DNA sequence: CTGAAAGCGCTAACAA
DNA sequence: TTGTTAGCGCTTTCAG
């Protein structure tokens, strides 16, 4: 059992024969405290190695000054960068951040969101798991007036603030780029059907095609299964090849999938970009490491984090009452995997 | 101002005309509560959408059931994987985990470690920042009897539990492998001098050389500056080349550096592995994506996390009193970047 | 089986 | 400028 034989305000109050309140005030430089008393108190605090007890503070103030963050996975560059953005602004505003992973599991997501609720976070920022369809565990927050901001992956059936990137536009841009590069038979490797991003990117893909008068071919819309990992891309690409389908360009829902695709293509001696151009989404660090370097849509991850916490703090501070939906744009970073002029 | 018009135990106690204590007991299935009372209480709790207030719980129990984790960066696969290992076991044991980044900054590390102290974490797991030389902020924990476990990067001047991998052995193995592949002029790209891992790996490097009768050449011990990023490796490699030094193998302190080196080598039309073999350390996902695929030492990140939390919980539960130092071994994963039989 | 009461460490009116 | 007091929501003896 951990023991805290910490010095408390009472301890130093007794020692100095003053009251708790005086100590409390002196420690926060309250103006109405005598110079000598304050000094004496602060000195003794230092000597006793006093550290404020945040738990007690939170209980009495009914505010923990912490905000909760739930992400599907920490081990994705995208998410950890978003978190950095969140932390940066949070710390500046005197907030702590509790980070949790849902591990892409609905069940886990429910558990951590309840834990966070019980921990009385002042607000929540979340990107939902791949499995999540029910949002009751988030609606509890609303019923208790704890503000929520979703980023990237949102719950469709909730009226809350959100920060997303324009998936439709991003996909459109990517496909348009491929078309302008002279590609005509463009496949799309899609993500798990439940995710909104999957839908939006498919739409952008289709609309770009039709905008350029290219008929949509169902065979070129490839399902990568339930995962967004490299293996899913690899396998889906191999299946495609096995089925005798050979596009001249591929737009993948995300970089790992794109890279899986590239690996399979290369293994099958398909030249990139000469035979097949590839474009990913997210611009993870690996995009610059694969060969050829992968064209991708840059998601402003840090900015997404900053924006999320900004919206959240606005709500916490009562400035915003109506949910605000911010949409950022993803910019296409063209690299060798999709440019014919190599 | 966030408002919690939450139902509390008192609310449901009043409604049912019983006492707070009874509610408290009923909610935790305390045996000494009548079946009907318990049922009634639990039903009403559900109806009121009651959620326990962890803050109050923590204050009265003097234990938060949370453990703090401080890592230099979240956006490294290695660290986020360690965290997953920590979380897994922590959750199973009923502990929450608060994750913080020091962002490789000493100042930030001090701040977050104090914040965590004030938040009354029951224990701390940390991998120190690159800048950290002073460990006073951790010694406070010891003085307050809050157990600490270091992993990977430890404070040399503290008597605490730690989980590390055998850097010396890993480095030795890597270099030995290169020697057996017929390499003789083996360079080592070292890390920031302050880090213990830098020292240990250099030792392993040197000892492997001497074990095989290869004299140590100072010119082949390359300093990569203060960073462990790809750019540092790239630049250091270019400098080396510019100075006319051309080894036939390179052992890099970590994968990003190794990859930076590879990029530079390829840019200078140096063939890998024919002219120069390369081995990294850490086995990050990119190792399998670069071309040729990078040989690397696999750090059992998940296991490191599990072991850390295990040691910590032992201390929290009072089972361990003397610090325990666990050393795990890194295994060499040989890939194309260092095997001549390609 | 249930209740009363004290206490965890801190804040914040309200007094003095 | 400082003290008094009540209270935050829950746990936990000690009684009944």
Helix content of chain A: 40-55%
Task: Work out the count of structural domains of chain A.
Answer: 3
SS field, number of helical segments of chain A: 12
**Biggest interface pair, residues each?**
A-B, 60 and 59 residues
CA radius of gyration of chain A is 26 Å
Structural class of chain A: alpha/beta
CATH class of the largest domain in chain A: Alpha Beta
Distance between the amino and carboxyl termini of chain A:
65 Å
Question: How would you name the CATH homologous superfamily of the largest domain in chain A?
Answer: Response regulator
- Low-pLDDT windows of residues of chain A: none
Number of beta strands of chain A:
12
Mean pLDDT of chain A, as a whole number?
A: 92
Looking at the structure, the CATH topology of the largest domain in chain A is Rossmann fold
CATH architecture field of the largest domain in chain A = 3-Layer(aba) Sandwich
Shape assignment of chain A? elongated
The amount of beta strand of chain A, in percent, is 15-25%
How is the largest sheet of chain A built, in terms of strand order?
2-1-3-4-5-11
Query: What is the N-to-C order of secondary-structure elements of chain A (H for helix, E for strand)?
Result: HHHHEHEHEHEEHEHEHEHEEHEE
Biggest sheet details of chain A: 6 strands, parallel
Determine the oligomeric state from the structure.
homodimer
């Amino acid at each position: 059992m951990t023991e805290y034989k910490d010095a408390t305000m009472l301890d130093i109050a007794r020692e100095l024969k003053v009251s708790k309140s005086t100590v409390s005030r002196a420690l926060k430089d309250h103006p109405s405290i005598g110079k000598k008393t304050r000094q004496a108190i602060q000195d003794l605090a230092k000597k006793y190695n006093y550290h404020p007890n945040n738990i007690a503070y939170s209980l009495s103030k009914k505010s923990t000054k912490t905000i909760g963050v739930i992400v599907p996975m920490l081990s994705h560059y995208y998410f950890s960068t978003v978190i950095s953005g969140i932390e940066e602004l949070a710390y500046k505003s005197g907030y702590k951040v509790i980070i949790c992973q849902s591990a892409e599991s609905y069940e886990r997501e429910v558990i951590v969101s309840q834990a966070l609720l019980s921990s009385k976070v002042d607000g929540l920022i979340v990107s939902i798991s791949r499995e999540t369809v029910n949002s009751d565990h988030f609606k509890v927050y609303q019923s208790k007036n704890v503000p929520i901001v979703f980023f990237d992956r949102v719950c469709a059936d909730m009226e809350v603030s959100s920060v997303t990137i324009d998936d439709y536009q991003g996909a459109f841009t990517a496909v348009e780029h491929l078309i302008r590069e002279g590609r005509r038979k463009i496949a799309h490797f899609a993500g798990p059907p439940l995710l909104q991003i999957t839908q939006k990117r498919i739409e952008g893909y289709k609309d770009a095609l039709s905008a350029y008068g290219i008929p949509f071919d169902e065979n070129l819309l490839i399902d990568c299964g339930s995962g967004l990992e490299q293996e899913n891309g690899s396998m889906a690409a191999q299946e495609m090849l096995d089925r005798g389908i050979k596009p001249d360009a591929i737009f993948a829902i995300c970089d790992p999938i794109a890279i899986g695709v590239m690996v399979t293509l290369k293994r099958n001696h398909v030249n990139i970009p000469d035979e097949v151009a590839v474009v990913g989404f997210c611009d993870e660090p690996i995009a610059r490491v694969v060969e050829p370097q992968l064209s991708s849509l840059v998601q402003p991850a840090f900015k997404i984090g900053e924006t999320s916490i900004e919206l959240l703090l606005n709500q916490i501070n009562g400035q915003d009452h109506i949910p605000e939906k911010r949409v950022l744009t993803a910019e296409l970073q063209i690299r060798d995997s999709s440019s014919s002029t190599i």
